[in-house]
């Protein structure tokens, strides 16, 4: 096992138990996060819905899950800064695992909605707390490698979800996700919080106050810019992938896209992209340069996706893989979110930023729906793509590169 020195000169392993357990936790998190989108139609048909109801009820359930993610990001982030990162790692996985296990037994729309909301709250805390904890316990020399490992392994959970849904009934797929999470819960018993966090317990500074992000323009600027650079990732996931069949149908594709297959290709690329981008950011000693290159590459591929005509499904599945790779800077993005803020606000920022990025799908879809009243669907998607990518590049220029940041500081 490769060994590095920590900030005090003591040997520290590249991959320790905390990193491995965090990666497995995010693996289950992603499995549960994308499973609903994959089994939505099958599960709703089984509950007796049909026709337009499949879309309407599906969107309402998805919105409830998204609302849970937004609320959960604030709750878990605040708890992580007040009570410790481990409190979130235990609480979040317990909540979303139980919610997904109970999803296997739903019989009504109301029960399904309540459980998707609770699952969303639970799913909101996993990644932010894991990256925060790992960033604080590891030296700069390996911080990016380890967070990339967490994200890269975690994203493979989407591939397992797609494969499980293909093989098993949707109820069994939910049950598998819930049981995986509950089993993993026991592996966290011997983990401990970082020394950096423990030192804040005796400090007089406020901890985990979400409103602190809005009480200073400089701090708010950092936060908004951090969120903006992550939005293109979920433009690809929430628009190009989720609405891929409708977009490509208008473009004259010779065949129909299957969202589940697209998920497998996109997340396979994202897993490689996460590991690659994290490793490169360490090698060149820069987070911002990696994100900039990823955004430019994503812009090129989005252009290819939206301006190609008459292609076949394999062409688009290949593009999904490539887009997954270029938006695989997600690991670097979450690492940036943790590195930009002091220890008393770090978990709050790292937990809420990814979930507000996910929540950005809502205004993006609303804008597309509005624009569709005046122009074609493809043209609307093109305009939204230009908007989010330009905003991301502008925001990146406004952020200080956080590589090599000493995380032992507080927000005042």
Radius of gyration using CA atoms only: 20 Å
- Beta fraction of the residues? under 5%
Q: So, CATH architecture?
A: Up-down Bundle
Distance between the termini: 39 Å
Mean pLDDT: 89
- Number of strand segments: 2
CATH fold-level topology: Growth Hormone, Chain: A
Low-confidence stretches: 1-12
Secondary structure category: mainly alpha
User: Can you say what the CATH homologous superfamily is?
Assistant: MFS general substrate transporter like domains
Helix content: over 70%
**CATH class value:** Mainly Alpha
How many structural domains in the coordinates?
Answer: 1
Count of DSSP helices?
17
Query: What are the secondary-structure elements, in order, as H or E?
Result: EEHHHHHHHHHHHHHHHHH
The main sheet comes to: 2 strands, antiparallel
Strands of the widest sheet, in order across it, are 1-2
Describe this structure as you would to a colleague.
With about 400 residues, the protein is mainly α. It has a single domain, classed as MFS general substrate transporter like domains (Growth Hormone, Chain: A), CATH 1.20.1250. It has 17 helices and two strands. A hairpin with a 5-residue loop joins β1 and β2. α1 packs antiparallel against α5 and α14 packs antiparallel against α15. It is globular, with a radius of gyration of 20 Å.
